[in-house]
Design a protein that fits this description.
Blueprint lengths: L10 E5 L4 H12 L3 E5 L3 H15 L3 E3 L7 H14 L5 E4 L14 H29 L6 E6 L15 H19 L4 E8 L5 H6 L11 H6 L9 H10 L12 E4 L7
Parallel strand pairs: 1-2, 1-4, 2-3, 4-5, 5-6, 6-7
Helix pairs in contact: 1-2, 1-8, 3-4, 4-5
């Protein structure tokens, strides 16, 4: 019981880990003794985040930059990771993008980019990493996959990001489909549907232009039932729960982490 939420010495992959929610989740695992690999498209940002997190938390954080929206990038990531590790305890499919435009002007490229990154990418990365997940998995200690969706996949988004909500609804249902198949292989799949967090993506949507330092998060938080935006502890704590023995009988669920937006 005392190690109920332990993730110490687990090998963890966090996609989209160079900033935002991915960085928050990676930090939580590192602070609790896991070895974490982060990935993002921009190599400089990914490398810098990995170095900073490792210095801050003392656990090993390794950068493997890759474009996980296409099969070539997914294969390149898998090949590089497989040279460094022969098993994988936890896969956090967090990498995601959004695209905003009025419905009359919404472009095909905005639809395809969002669907490829948010739905296609997590599926095929999971497929490629399955042998390593299975190698780490056992009946008593299953491997874990956590897919990061969004409350915009549950409720109607307030922004004109017409492909984003449907892509997140798709990853929620993909979570359930994968969970039903992979539980028989000692791999537990669950999802998280975050609400407002102080991220670059949300800052661009609320008029902050991606400047997370100077966006008025207190003002945004006052519109939330909880009275604030999310903290790193909120999202990291949920990811750690879903990666520890505490969630060993929780399968195929998508848990909101939104301060009460959906239920309100």
């Amino acid at each position: 019981m005392k190690d109920l939420f332990s993730v110490k010495n687990k090998i963890v992959v966090v996609t989209g880990g160079s900033r935002g929610i991915g960085e928050m989740i990676a930090a939580g695992f590192l602070a609790n003794g896991a070895k974490v690999y982060i990935s993002s498209r921009k190599a400089d940002a990914c490398n810098a985040t990995a170095q900073r997190l490792q210095e801050q938390y003392g656990s090993e954080c390794i950068s493997i930059p890759a474009d996980l929206s296409n099969l070539d990038g997914i294969q390149a990531f898998t090949d590089q990771f497989s040279k460094l590790e022969d098993s994988l305890d936890v896969l956090i499919n967090n990498a995601g993008v959004a695209w905003g435009a009025p419905i009359e002007e919404f472009p095909e490229v905005g639809w395809d980019k969002v669907m490829n990154t948010n739905v296609k990418g997590p599926f095929f990365l999971t497929q490629k990493l399955l042998p390593l997940l299975e190698k780490a998995a056992s009946f008593d200690e299953p491997a874990r996959i956590v897919n990061v969706g969004s409350i915009d996949g549950i409720k109607t988004p307030i922004f004109d990001n017409f492909s984003y909500g449907p892509s997140k609804a798709a990853i929620h249902h993909l979570t359930r489909v994968l969970a039903a198949h992979l539980i028989k292989r000692n791999i537990i799949v669950n999802g998280i549907a975050p609400g407002p967090f102080p991220t670059w993506m949300l800052s661009t949507g609320v008029g902050g232009g991606g400047d997370t330092e100077n966006t008025d998060w207190d003002k945004i938080g006052r519109g939330n039932p909880r009275g604030r935006v999310g903290k790193a502890e909120d999202i990291a704590g949920l990811a750690i729960f879903l990666s520890s023995q505490a969630s060993g009988f929780t399968v195929g669920d998508v848990i909101t982490c939104d301060g009460g937006v959906v239920v309100s």
